[in-house]
Specification:
The chain is α/β, with parallel strands linked by helices and about 325 residues long. Helix content is about 30%, strand content about 20%.
Length: about 325
């Protein structure tokens, strides 16, 4: 019998914009209620909501920002209204930017700069401790996603960082599901090369999933600069089978936090269908990249047009793989 798994979309907006901390409605925004209603009606009820660490916690070890937190809680309330589940994720790539004399400088977690570690795994643990205090009793929050696509971590070890943060959440009495992304941009194709044969997380609650991302273009970036060709299916299927097989070998459920294809070439849809079929067989949670009211003509978007009337071309394929 298949284990339970959920499918849905990333709901972008709150992580948009380079300005920090930025202003809501100018640099970033939260989506409106009709978007939640639309995807709930389609059955895509798992929402991965990216946020910015620097906006939610404007000073390391400081309080959560009341206005930004209110925006996220409004999203959670709308998800709850329509029977959806939320994954909260920070879109920070293993980094945090600090205001140094009026200029934001980016620092990699657990790396020394001039002999000083500016941002540590303890700082990330503090952030998730505070988020846990806000959301651990809210069942609509399905999971915490520790970090989007850590990569090029310098002298730091992402495995150690992720274990430290998970332990801090558990020490807070919070047994909620935790998504643990991999190093190397969380790439499914390079997962085994980056992490070896064995998992690294020890969880007293035994309630976590390893998270990979998978795009089908040649460089795996999701930019889809080149056309579809015959190399796409074996590359995509090899990557998803490698990742889900690794998770199965390690006795842990898998999650693909991002996957997406352009809406302007139907050739990609057959590969999306095949990858989702593998994920079905592995009982793998998944969230398509991406939805959100502010993507405009972004080629991977599944945000409806025409006042929530016109579906995107990718949608029928997604609806064939809604979860179990």
């Amino acid at each position: 019998m298949l284990a339970q798994y959920q499918r849905g979309v990333n709901l972008s907006g709150a992580e948009f914009g380079e300005a920090l901390p930025g202003a809501e409605g100018v640099d970033y925004t939260f989506n409106s209620e009709p978007t939640f209603q639309y995807f709930a009606a389609k059955g895509l009820t798992l929402l991965r909501i990216p946020i910015q660490w620097e906006r939610m916690q404007q000073a390391l070890n400081g309080p959560l920002d009341a206005g930004y937190l209110a925006g996220l809680k409004r999203d959670v309330a709308w998800a709850k209204k329509y029977g959806m589940s939320v994954i909260i994720e920070i879109q920070n790539f293993g980094r945090y930017s600090i205001n140094k004399g009026g200029v934001y400088q980016e620092f990699i977690i657990d790396n020394a700069y001039g002999g000083l570690v500016e941002v540590s795994s303890d700082n990330l643990s503090d952030f998730w401790f505070r988020m846990s205090n806000e959301f651990q009793a809210e069942p609509t929050v399905y999971a915490y996603d520790l970090m989007n696509e850590p990569h090029d971590m310098g002298t730091a070890d992402w495995r150690v960082i992720s274990q430290t943060v998970l332990t801090a959440i558990r020490d807070n009495g919070d047994n909620k599901l935790i998504m643990v992304p991999g190093d190397g941009w969380s790439g499914a194709a390079s997962w085994v090369d980056n992490h070896g044969p064995n998992g690294w997380i020890v969880d007293p609650a035994n309630n976590f999933e390893y998270e990979a991302h998978l795009y089908f273009d040649a460089d795996g970036s999701g930019e889809y600069k080149g056309p579809y060709d015959a190399s796409v299916p074996p590359r995509a299927l090899g990557a998803i089978n490698s990742f889900t097989g690794w998770c199965n070998d390690n006795g842990v459920q898998s999650y693909v936090g991002e996957y997406g294809v352009p809406f302007d070439d139907p050739a990609w849809l057959s590969v999306l269908d095949s990858v989702l079929a593998v994920m079905d067989g592995a009982s793998c949670d998944g969230t398509y990249w991406s939805a959100g009211e502010f993507w405009g003509d972004y080629r991977l978007s599944v945000q409806p047009t025409g006042g929530f009337i016109v579906d995107r071309p990718q949608l029928p394929t997604l609806l064939n793989h809604l979860g179990a």
